[in-house]
Amino acid sequence: MSSSVDDELVWTIHVMAMPFTVRMRGVPDRDVAERAVRAFADDLADADLLFSLWRPDTPMAQVALGTGSVEDAPREIREVLALAEEWRAHTGGAFDARLRRRAAARLPVEYPEGAPDPTGIVKTWAVARALAHLEEAAARSWMVDAAGDVCVGGEGVWTVGIADPTLVGDPHGSRPVGAVGLGHPARAMATSGVAQARDHVWDPETGEPARHYLQVTVVGDDLIACDAWATAIVAGGPRTLASAVEHGVAALAITAERSGGGFEAVVTPAWPDEDA
Amino acid sequence: MRASRTAVVVAGSAAILGVGYATAPKDLPTLDLAEPGDSGSGDAGSGEATDPGDTADAGGGGSAGSGSGTFDGPVVTNIRGDFQARIVVEGGTVVSVEALAAGTSAAESQIINSEAIPALTQRVLEAQDWDVDAYSGASYTSPGFLESVQGAFEEAGL
């Protein structure tokens, strides 16, 4: 079945206990597009079966428990742990993929504190890996919303709102506090914050929950990089934001809620001008 | 880290807020692609991540400790709203965790960051009726959801 050029197709995938939305414009063949999205979804589900810490029998859980070695783990585990280490080094230690006691206490499996926990980067890594399947659809333009981290491709611009940092739950239908057009070549936007899961990001320097900023959004051309920087800035606070400035990162950090409404924020020089 | 200021276009404000799933033409296909191990008892099917109105759903049953079944955690209410989780257990292993309800909006006081970095520009952000295709925000999980997950685990005898 074919669809007219102006049709927009939408799919919602529930995996990793999160909703992933795929939208396509200008799809030449709807059936081909559906198969592409199914392959994309299967890829995410496969990643979940490799990396979930919610059950003790995944390869990542085995490594975190110490019952399996990194060397013997599947290639994907080694790749993601190496990626996490790369970002730890790149962000001066702010991106720290180790399991903290309070995070471990929320999991149904008991892991030793300090066990490797790349959860913070697995989602965007998995999306980046699975995107190749979406290309099969040959859409004129597409967008993937991975529960708050967004990337786009093809022609045109997708407008992505910055969610209210005090909002909990799915922000769809809410009033955003800003908006950025994603297209050429800035195609990715990731946000990390404290409202959705209180104290889930730790300051690696103090070992305490990170409360430097309410929320940090990063725009760029690489979804994983945006995600890693956003998480790192939330964790490391001003010192990591200063490092992000030096690296030319386009970041917006929401620093405080105003008593009269609205929010205080700071942006790096690379942040796109909102008054354009 | 390689973002380009010039390439990013910003949408105008004052458009009618009509976002996400609501903007999709009604006859479009919506796949509900659960992970392979899913028992099929979940309530996937809507485009919404959560549905607070669904909290009374009794789930697919399953006796405590039997090792298989669908278990709904208690509705956990805190200042940020109602949270409820559902887990699907097969052979004593959790194969699916989903949110039946995940909170509502609420204000929260925050610590003001006083450290200044000269290169930064100050902004004041106001919630507006931007017409957006998607939202970038923190991933949709919460302590309330996780607390409800724990309740579901207890009900499952895990």
TrEMBL record, chain A:
Protein name (database record): FAD:protein FMN transferase
GO molecular function ontology, one term from the record: transferase activity
Keyword Flavoprotein: yes
UniProt-listed Enzyme Commission number(s): 2.7.1.180
SUPFAM superfamilies, per database record: ApbE-like
Enzyme class: transferase
Gene3D superfamilies in UniProt: ApbE-like domains
Catalytic activity: L-threonyl-[protein] + FAD = FMN-L-threonyl-[protein] + AMP + H(+)
Pfam family, one: ApbE
UniProtKB/TrEMBL annotation, chain B:
InterPro entries hit by this protein: FMN-bd
SMART domains: FMN_bind (SM00900)
Listed Gly residues bias regions: 58-70
Biased composition (Low complexity): 46-57
Upper taxonomic lineage: Bacteria, Bacillati, Actinomycetota, Actinomycetes, Micrococcales
Protein name per the record: FMN-binding protein
The keyword Signal is annotated on this UniProt entry: yes
Organism: Demequina zhanjiangensis
Ion transport recorded as keyword: no
Annotated spans, Disordered: 30-75
Keywords per UniProt: Signal
Domain of life according to the entry: Bacteria
